[in-house]
Amino acid sequence: MAAKDGDGWALCALGHQHWGLYGAAGLLTVHHTLDGMPYVLMQKRAWWSHHGGTWGLPGGACDGLLSGC
């Protein structure tokens, strides 16, 4: 891990674990066909990750050096 790397688990005030020491961000990508049908880009999570083997939006932990993440 690099200095200020945001990879890791954080505990919220309710005691739940959340990914990203400095928060996390995701990307919602939608494509609409000419007839209006929406398609959403999703990725299958690696088996070793949180909820591994399921589908989700691309994203990850924020780096501590970034502002506005």
Describe the structure.
The structure is a single chain. By secondary structure, this protein is mostly beta strands. It has no helices and eight strands. The protein has a two-stranded antiparallel ribbon. Strand 4 and strand 5 form a beta hairpin. It is elongated and about 45 Å long. The two termini are 19 Å apart. The model has no long low-confidence stretch (mean pLDDT 87).
Summarize the structure.
The protein has 69 residues and is an all-beta fold. Helices cover 0% and strands 32% of the residues.
What are its keywords?
69 residues; mainly beta; two-stranded antiparallel sheet; single chain; elongated
Can you lay out the helices and strands and say which pair or pack?
Layout (H helix, E strand, L loop, with lengths): L8 E3 L5 E3 L4 E3 L3 E3 L5 E3 L2 E2 L10 E2 L2 E3 L8
Antiparallel strand pairs: 1-2, 3-8, 4-5, 6-7
